[in-house]
Design a protein that fits this description.
By secondary structure, this protein is of the alpha+beta class. It has helices at residues 3-17, 23-34, 46-49, 64-70, 106-118, 146-180, 185-212, 217-227, 230-241, 248-256, 260-263, 266-272, 291-295, 302-312, 315-320, 323-327, 334-355; strands at 38-42, 52-53, 60-61, 76-79, 85-93, 121-125, 132-136, 139-142.
Length: 357
């Protein structure tokens, strides 16, 4: 997983732990409404406890009401990793002062430094601004009102619908071109580009869903319907067209970490797929290995797909192969050979029809 992907996953775990409907969020909301402010650390690891001075150790069962009452004191609360116990209350946290911080308030600066020093989730509730800020490692995130997040999530869903329609059209077009053996490098780079744009919107919506908690069910259902097989198709496109097939996953990780401006350059995508500097995207013809289309044939195991690609080398050779030639591939009997032949024919006919709709 890329560094960007790891950061996004850590952020989603943070948001899920404090999402509406969780016991922790209920406690935070009570502190917020009382305008008392508060500082909470999730995790009573040795690294955290070394920074905690004074206070007392109630080791009490976690309840929203208990957190609310204990937060009235000036010091910080330390909760257990599983959020079942309040390990410490009214403690003074003393992180390394040399750790850089962009915060100005004492509570938020302490929270940021503790998060960076220990890697624990630290939650700061502002008494004056009435906001909840999450810190973990280098991550800083300000929680928003669920109604605001829901509005943004619905807007993102509408954007995803438009981008998915454009991607579907590109996939339909390249599928028809694959059967006609007329694919150019430009066609491939456009599909990769549009796939990544869709996946970035999906990742944004997933963050919204994590933050919405039990209020995000409808958005989650819409996302599942729209996201479909986008990630699998994107990976198979890379496997079909990367100059070195075994580097397809690595190329996708690199592209996923690019900036938005870099992603909009088809030539950069072509280079990441193993094609040389200055290659003409329009004039360079490429042929698929066949992974993506074979995956669309029902009940065809991954190993059989690999065997077919290794045996024939590409989609055109598979299309022109006889039943006997397909039958000779390891793991394929006569019945499956006929099924593959018929499956590819149906996909070709459907792609040619869809392209003209």
């Amino acid at each position: 997983m890329t560094k960007v992907g790891q950061t996004d996953e850590r952020l989603q775990r943070m948001l899920r732990s404090v999402a509406p409907g969780t016991s922790l969020r209920e406690g935070l909301e009570q502190i917020l409404r009382a305008r008392t402010g508060g500082l909470l650390v999730v995790g009573d690891s040795p690294e955290v406890m070394r920074l905690a001075e004074g206070g007392f150790r109630p080791n009490a069962e976690y309840t929203p009401a208990a957190v609310y009452e204990l937060a009235k004191m000036d010091g910080a609360l330390v909760l257990s990793h599983d959020l079942k116990r309040i390990a410490c209350a009214n403690v003074q946290l003393v992180p390394d002062p040399s750790i850089p911080s962009q915060e100005t308030g004492i509570r938020h600066r302490t929270a940021e430094r503790v998060a960076k020093q220990t890697g624990a989730l630290v939650i700061s509730i502002s008494q004056r601004r009435n906001v909840i800020t999450l810190y973990r490692g280098p991550i800083r995130y300000v929680l928003r009102d669920p109604s605001v997040v829901l509005t943004k999530a619905n807007q993102a869903i509408q954007t995803l619908e438009r981008y998915r329609a454009v991607l579907d059209q590109a996939l339909t077009n390249i599928t028809a071109l694959e059967f006609e053996d007329l694919v150019t490098l430009l066609d491939v780079t456009l599909v990769v580009q549009r796939t990544q744009l869709v996946l970035r919107i999906v990742a944004e919506i997933e963050r919204y869903i994590s933050e919405l908690g039990n209020e995000g069910h409808l958005v989650s259902m819409q996302l599942q319907e729209l996201a479909g097989n986008v990630q699998d198709d994107g990976y198979d496109i890379c496997r079909d067209y990367h100059h070195q097939q075994d580097k397809a996953s690595e190329a996708l990780e690199h592209i996923a970490a690019w900036s938005a401006d870099a992603l909009l350059d088809p030539a950069s995508i072509a280079r990441e797929l193993g094609y040389g500097q200055g290659v003409s995207l329009v004039d360079t013809s490429v042929s698929p290995r066949g992974y993506r289309l074979l995956r669309k044939i029902p009940r065809l195991p991954h190993q059989i797909v690999d065997n077919l690609v290794q045996t024939f080398g590409g989609l055109q050779a598979m299309m022109s192969a006889s039943i006997d030639q397909l039958d000779a591939v390891e793991g394929i009997g006569e019945s499956r050979a006929r099924s593959i032949k018929e499956g590819l024919r149906r996909l070709r006919d459907q792609a040619l029809i869809d392209r003209h709709l």
